[in-house]
Specification:
The complex is a heterodimer of chains A (about 325) and B (about 325). By secondary structure, chain A is of the alpha+beta class. In chain B, a hairpin with a 4-residue loop joins strand 12 and strand 13. The radius of gyration of chain B is 20 Å and the shape is globular. The chains are: A alpha+beta (about 325), B alpha+beta (about 325). Chains A and B meet through strand 3, strand 13 and helix 9 of A and strand 2 and strand 14 of B.
Chain lengths: ~325, ~325
């Protein structure tokens, strides 16, 4: 993975991907187009469900993280017991960097009926994913598995009280109920009005910069019809007003802002990051995507869960992990 | 962290032959650093006289700037439980204790596990676990309706470290550093993937406390017979704690007190089937090659988390590491 500060690879994106694939020898296939990149997500999910790490799909030195933690690929985390795919699928292909990001749902832990025990359909988790493709193989896998284990105890012990029922629905179920990505996300931006990669990241970063230590007086480039979904729930239909009036002084730091996929055709930017709340020792680990039109944010979707305070992404140096600067991850 | 015991020289050589800028710290000196560290954290003041310029700090496995973050930001006072494990050989000192932490309008009792490294009169490494009474881990930011059970409060109720821990081992019977670590590691290797048939070197009077709870020698269900009985350390491993912990990894033995036969380790207990990791500090009193008393504090962490001090390979390994 290379992280650059808005370095220029624009010319590469303009190359006809399919033509290259035909003219190049098979050993060095050309870059992947949109559907090719999206196909890698499907192949990845199939592999995870089958618990099979094949040499055809994965590079030998593939690096894998789940929830910010590097693990061996194949039998750990969601790979241990994923049992089925969910129905929500939001792909964000980045043909320029040959990465593809995704927000979706999967099931884990399903089991057939045994004896008196009924069949277990498994549990829905929300999944945020980034894959990097090099020479037709996956070389990097970065995923957040947002599980509904919000009622389990931290400290354990025989005297711990039972937890109360949660106020919010489990994230995986709520994301699944959204059905499919909103039509706004599928709308192509007319070619003449497409923003550059740098411009799109800059606009998306205003969201983080605005929310961090927000005093209500920042620069908030939201459209009037801007809507935000978080963990499958509508959290605002008045993005700008919310920033001006209510979400003030809440998030103390937004760090390790990794912009990992940019879809210029549709004006979508996808980022991983962390929201620290130092007064309550609380860190949200997030994947968040932004639909941007004419330099304004029109629609936002995020999935997140609590992580240990201050944890890095697993892909950043310590300094990057603590920094509030945007990173263009290539 | 240095891989070799260079500081052994400091003990073995006569003072006149040493070229060290400062003499090595003895037991009381090392314990004093814990007190000074707690005072500094309470005041949220990183004093250049106490800390090296390049000091590295982790809390709960995450590296953070020292001062103004984590427990440093919110500590509001010291607690009463204090268990020091000085390691004069490596010039490290470990600690289990309690502190107060301000949250909103109340002071919470927080258990801490700590390791400090001292070089040339200054603290160069700070590794701490802050075990907070958050009760539940909420994905959606929920606070528990009931007052959460506090590990810190339970640890504080233990009063003081048990008298057994303070007993010195007769000099002729003192085990070597490597022997003590080897014995302590049998606890982790016995628990990992336990089938009830491992090697469990516990004394007959062995006892264990976890997060201030009495975890052995209390009435508990024997899963083999279904009866309620009092399970000793050994019996518990033989009949009850089987196939519970799938992996005990990043086993970092960070302080050894040969004089008292105490070994202090950090580590992680993974449970693959429930995607659950305990981040743990655990200490062992060892006599004649057997574990006599165990004390641990821990909390849930993210699955697979690294200590913040290990390489990826060390972090995922179940081999013991002698941290010097």
């Amino acid at each position: 993975m290379k992280t650059t500060r808005l370095a220029c690879l624009i010319g590469f994106a303009a190359l006809p991907a399919l033509a290259l694939a035909v003219t190049n020898p098979p050993a060095t296939p050309g870059p992947c187009n949109r559907s090719c990149l999206e196909g890698f997500v499907d192949k990845y999910l199939d592999a995870m469900q089958a618990h099979k790490v094949s040499d055809e799909l994965f590079a030998r030195d593939v690096k894998f993280t789940e929830n910010g933690i590097r693990l061996p690929l194949g039998k750990e985390g969601l790979w241990f017991n994923m049992s089925g795919k969910g129905s929500y699928r939001f792909y964000v292909p980045d043909i320029e960097t040959q990465q593809v990001a995704f927000i979706g749902t999967v099931r884990y832990g399903a089991a057939p009926a045994t004896g008196n025990a009924p069949a277990n359909p498994g549990t829905l988790a929300a999944l945020a994913l980034r894959l990097k493709i090099v020479d037709n193989r996956i070389t990097e896998v970065e995923q957040l598995a947002i599980r509904p284990d919000n009622t389990q105890q931290v400290t354990g012990g025989a005297n711990a009280p039972a937890a109360p029922p949660p106020r919010f629905p489990p994230t995986g179920e709520a994301v699944e109920k959204m059905g499919r990505p909103h039509p706004v996300f599928f709308e192509a931006i007319p070619e003449a009005r497409r923003a550059t990669r740098e411009e799109l990241i800059k606009t998306a970063n205003y969201y983080f910069a605005g929310l961090q230590r927000n005093d209500g007086k920042g620069y908030y480039p939201f459209t009037d019809d801007c809507v935000r979904f978080e963990n499958g729930i509508t959290t605002t239909t008045q993005c700008k007003k919310q920033f001006q009036e209510s979400v003030k002084g809440i998030v103390s730091r937004i760090r390790d802002r990794r912009f990992v996929a940019v879809d210029r055709e549709r004006g979508i930017v996808y980022a991983f990051g962390f929201f620290d709340h130092d007064r309550i020792n609380w860190t949200w680990q997030l994947a968040e995507l932004f639909k941007i039109e004419d330099g304004q944010i029109r629609r936002i979707e995020a999935v997140f869960h609590r992580a240990p305070y201050g944890i890095p992404s697993g892909w950043s140096t310590y300094e990057q992990g603590m920094s509030e600067e945007p990173q263009d991850v290539r | 962290m240095r891989p070799l015991p260079l500081l052994l020289l400091a003990i073995a050589l006569p003072a006149a032959a040493q070229q060290q800028p400062r003499p090595a710290c003895d037991r009381a000196c090392l314990e004093g650093y814990v007190d000074r560290y707690l005072d500094a954290m309470d005041a949220d003041r990183v004093d250049p006289a106490l800390f090296a310029r390049e000091v590295k700090f982790t809390e709960n496995g995450a590296q953070l700037p020292l001062g103004g973050e984590g427990l440093w930001l919110r500590m509001s006072g010291k607690g009463t439980y204090k268990f020091y494990i000085p390691d004069i050989e490596t010039q490290q000192v470990a600690f289990i204790g309690t502190v107060r932490e301000r949250e909103r309008d109340q002071d919470l009792v927080v258990a801490i596990a700590l390791r400090l490294r001292i070089v040339d009169g200054r603290i160069t490494e700070v590794e701490q676990l802050a075990i907070r009474p958050e009760g539940v881990l909420t994905s959606n930011g929920e606070r528990p309706a009931m007052r959460p059970v506090s590990t810190g409060e339970r640890v504080e109720k233990m009063g003081a470290p048990h008298a057994v821990f303070r007993e010195a081992i007769a000099e002729a019977k003192r085990a070597s550093r490597s022997e003590l670590i080897k014995t302590a590691n049998y606890y982790f290797s016995g628990l990992q993937g336990n089938d009830g048939k491992g090697y469990y070197p516990f004394t007959d009077d062995c006892d264990r406390y976890e997060n201030g709870n009495h975890a052995t020698n209390v009435p508990a269900r024997n899963p083999v017979t279904g009866e309620t009985e009092v399970l000793s350390c050994k019996k518990q491993f033989e009949v009850a704690l089987r196939n519970v912990v799938s992996r005990v990894r990043d086993r970092r033995f960070v302080a050894v007190d040969r004089e008292r036969g105490i070994v202090f380790a950090f580590g992680f207990f993974d449970h693959h089937s429930i995607n659950w990791t305990w981040q743990i500090a655990e200490l062992f009193k060892i006599q004649d090659g057997q574990i006599r008393r165990i004390e641990a504090v821990f909390h849930r962490s993210a699955f697979g988390l690294n200590s913040g001090w290990s390489t990826y390979e060390q972090g995922i390994s179940d081999q013991p590491q002698d941290i010097r």
